[in-house]
Amino acid sequence: MRLRMMLLLAVFSLATACGGGETTAAPAEEATAQAVVLWGAEGGFVTATTNTLRPPRVVVYSDGQVIADAVKTFRLTEAEVGETVASMEKFLNGQPPTAAPKPDAPMVTDVPDTVLGVRAKDGRMHEVRVPALDQIADFYPKELTEAKKLMDGLATRAASEGTDYTAARVRVVAENAPGVEGEAKPWPAGVQEPSGSVDPVWKTDLDGAASAAVVKAVPQGGATGPKGGGPGQSLFKTGSGAVFVVSWRYLLPDE
């Protein structure tokens, strides 16, 4: 017993000599970057697949990463992030959650609402929805058109100097395709299948091997997808014989 006590005292003395008797805390995990500015679209006369799969047009993150359409990415400097946030705060300050055009504005239907957002100093994302901004911009406050112009500039930079955006996680959408022409491929191995009828679409987010299987089976910008990148789309048949149009895109860091 006495020998055990002496050994314990020796270990304690050694630890005190090496570390001053203080407990070393494990390093804190690096904080995940937050979306600080966004530009997107909601609604409009689009398919259920488009509405479910549609990413923000542009997202700026606190670490400087800019992602456009979940397809292209580039980085802003810390100063550029600060300037962008400050400009969007100025443009959106005092704007209501849904902007209203001047009373004499023409009626426009079946087009998406523009969504503009900036993370406020209280940490919450302040979003403003603007119906038919592209069509009747002159009937809205100039601050909203300036905010859209700023976001357009980031989208242009992403297209010209950005690199392809990829991620380990994807969003998959399947829509019933009865009578659609084309050869349906077997459902990708290792990927969950829709069960029964889908109304209007089936959605799942995947990572790991299942995500890789979808990316391999449905290449971006494939024959039935948009040219030059973007979501892939192909026909697939489940084990039960049901045929679906399957589409996917990479998920954003905060999705």
Describe the sheet with the most strands: 7 strands, antiparallel
- Percentage of residues in DSSP E strands: 25-35%
The residue-averaged pLDDT reads 83
Secondary structural class: alpha+beta
The radius of gyration is 25 Å
Describe this structure in words.
- With 255 residues, the protein is of the alpha+beta class.
- A hairpin with a 5-residue loop joins strand 11 (232-237) and strand 12.
- The chain has a 7-stranded antiparallel sheet, with helices on one face.
- It contains 5 helices and 12 strands.
- Helix 3 packs antiparallel against helix 4 (142-161).
- The model is unreliable at 1-30 and 222-229 (pLDDT under 50).
- The chain has helices at residues 2-19, 48-53, 78-92, 142-161, 208-217; strands at residues 35-42, 58-61, 65-68, 72-75, 113-119, 125-131, 163-164, 170-176, 185-186, 202-206, 232-237, 243-250.
How are the SSEs ordered, and which strands pair?
Blueprint: H1 2-19, E1 35-42, H2 48-53, E2 58-61, E3 65-68, E4 72-75, H3 78-92, E5 113-119, E6 125-131, H4 142-161, E7 163-164, E8 170-176, E9 185-186, E10 202-206, H5 208-217, E11 232-237, E12 243-250
Parallel strand pairs: 9-11
Antiparallel strand pairs: 1-2, 1-5, 2-3, 3-4, 4-7, 5-6, 8-10, 8-12, 11-12
Helix pairs in contact: 3-4
Provide a brief overview of the structure:
The protein has about 260 residues and is of the alpha+beta class. The protein is about 25% helix and about 25% strand. The longest helix is centred in the middle third of the chain and has 20 residues, at about 140-160.
Features:
7-stranded antiparallel β-sheet; 255 residues; 5 helices; disordered N terminus; alpha+beta; 5-stranded mixed β-sheet
